[in-house]
C-alpha cells in the first residue's frame, strides 16, 4: 500500500465510533502503563550477549505501549497483539527538524479532519482543499519507512530485527477497521526516539532469505518445521513510481484449507481491512532499498504463504507447505 493510500479520503462516509477510543485509552491507562516507564523501558538483552536487545511493543485495539526511546543500531522489535483485531506497526523516520508534535498537528490532524468530513458528507470541496494545503510537502516523500512488524493476529507475538539510525520516528498501525477507519487515527500512532548511543549489536545469522525488488519477491519456500531466522533484503525500487509507491511490506500468513491465493492477493492490494481472511504471523515492514530486516519464526507443519503488499498493481502471494 502506498503511504498516500493510508490517508485515502475518497471513501464512502462512515460514522466515527467514539466508545472504542475511550476503551483503548482506558486499556492503556490501566494495563499497559508499565511499558512507558521511561527510556529503554521494555528493552531486554537476548541470550546471545552480542545479539540485538529486544524492544517490547504491545498492541491493543487501538493503542501501542512501547518504549519512548531506544538505542540506534540493531534492535529486535517484538510485537505482542493483545487486541481482538490484527495489528502491525511501521516505523517512519521524521525529516530533520520535524517533531512528532508537528507531524501530528500538520499531517495526522488534518487527515483525520478530512476523513471525518468525507464520512459526514457532502464534502465541502473548498474546505477539503484548505485542509489538504495544510499538509506539508515533506509528507510522505521525506518520511522513508524503516521497518516494523507486519500483520500479527490477536494473541500472537511476532518480531523483526532492524538497524536504525538516530532520529525521531513515528510508529503507526495502518490496518483498517471494518468501518474502514485507520487504526492510527484511532490512537495507534506514537513517537519513538532513537538515540545516538548504539546497541553495538550484530545482526542475527539467517538460515533463509527473501529478496524483494520492484514489487517482485524471490522467497525460500522449502523450509522445514522448526525455528528459522529469515533475512529479508529490500532491493531496488521501481523508479517509475514515487517513493511512497514502492513500499514493499511482507507478511507471513497461515492459510486455511479454503484460502485461494488470488483472493488473498486481492485482499492485500490496498490497506488491510479487518476482518482478515487468514491468520497472519508477522513479517517485516517496508525499508529503504539496500536495507535488510530479519524475522525469527517458529513454523509448525501446515500451509503458509508469503504475502507481499503493495507492488504497483496487485499484492502477490507465494504459498508453501511446511511438512
Ligand atoms: Cu492496528
Report on this structure.
By secondary structure, the protein is of the alpha+beta class. It has a single domain (1-323), classed as Sandwich (Immunoglobulin-like), CATH 2.60.40.420. The chain contains 5 helices and 17 strands. The strands form 3 sheets. Strands 1, 2, 3, 4, 5, 6, 7, 8 and 9 form a 9-stranded mixed sheet that branches. It has a 4-stranded mixed sheet with strand order 11-10-12-15, with no helix packed on it. A hairpin with a 6-residue loop joins strand 16 and strand 17 (316-322). Mean pLDDT is 81; it is low at 1-42 and 239-245. Copper (II) ion binds next to loops.
**DSSP strand (E) fraction?**
35-45%
Secondary structural class: alpha+beta
The shape is: globular
Secondary structure tally: strands:
17
Bound molecules: copper (II) ion
Distance between the termini: 32 Å
- The CATH architecture can be given as Sandwich
Instruction: State the name of the first-level CATH class.
Output: Mainly Beta
The number of helical elements comes to 5
In CATH, what is the homologous superfamily? Cupredoxins -  blue copper proteins
Summed up, the domain count is: 1
Low-confidence stretches: 1-42, 239-245
- Provide mean pLDDT, rounded: 81
Order of helices and strands: HHEEEEEHHEEEEEEEEHEEEE
Radius of gyration: 19 Å
In percent, how helical is the residue content?
10-25%
Amino acid at each position: 500500500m502506498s503511504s498516500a493510500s493510508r490517508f485515502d479520503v475518497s471513501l464512502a462516509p462512515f460514522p466515527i465510533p467514539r466508545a472504542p477510543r475511550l476503551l483503548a485509552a482506558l486499556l492503556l491507562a490501566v494495563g499497559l502503563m508499565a511499558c512507558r516507564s521511561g527510556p529503554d523501558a521494555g528493552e531486554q538483552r537476548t541470550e546471545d550477549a552480542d545479539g540485538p536487545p529486544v524492544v517490547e511493543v504491545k498492541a491493543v485495539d487501538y493503542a501501542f505501549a512501547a518504549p519512548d526511546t531506544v538505542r540506534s543500531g540493531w534492535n529486535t522489535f517484538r510485537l505482542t497483539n493483545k487486541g481482538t483485531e490484527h495489528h502491525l506497526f511501521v516505523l517512519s523516520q521524521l525529516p530533520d527538524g520535524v517533531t512528532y508534535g508537528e507531524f501530528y498537528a500538520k499531517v495526522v490532524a488534518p487527515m483525520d479532519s478530512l476523513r471525518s468530513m468525507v464520512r459526514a458528507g457532502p464534502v465541502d470541496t473548498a474546505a477539503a482543499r484548505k485542509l489538504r494545503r495544510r499538509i506539508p510537502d515533506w509528507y510522505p516523500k521525506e518520511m522513508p519507512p524503516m521497518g516494523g512488524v507486519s500483520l500479527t493476529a490477536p494473541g500472537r507475538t511476532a518480531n523483526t530485527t532492524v538497524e536504525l539510525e538516530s532520529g525521531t520516528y513515528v510508529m503507526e498501525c495502518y490496518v483498517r477497521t471494518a468501518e474502514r477507519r485507520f487504526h492510527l487515527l484511532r490512537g495507534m500512532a506514537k513517537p519513538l526516539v532513537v538515540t545516538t548511543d548504539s546497541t553495538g549489536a550484530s545482526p542475527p545469522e539467517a538460515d533463509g532469505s527473501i529478496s524483494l525488488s520492484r514489487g517482485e519477491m524471490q522467497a525460500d519456500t522449502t523450509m522445514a518445521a522448526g525455528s528459522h531466522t529469515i533475512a529479508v533484503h529490500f532491493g531496488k525500487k521501481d523508479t517509475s513510481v514515487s517513493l511512497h509507491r514502492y513500499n514493499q511490506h511482507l507478511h507471513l500468513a497461515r492459510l486455511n484449507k479454503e484460502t485461494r491465493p488470488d483472493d488473498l492477493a486481492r485482499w492485500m492490494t490496498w490497506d488491510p481491512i479487518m476482518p482478515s481472511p487468514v491468520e497472519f504471523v508477522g513479517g517485516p515492514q517496508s525499508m529503504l532499498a539496500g536495507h535488510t530486516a530479519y524475522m525469527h519464526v517458529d513454523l509448525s507443519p501446515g500451509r503458509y504463504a508469503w504475502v507481499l503488499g503493495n507492488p504497483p498493481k496487485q499484492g502477490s502471494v507465494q504459498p508453501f507447505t511446511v511438512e
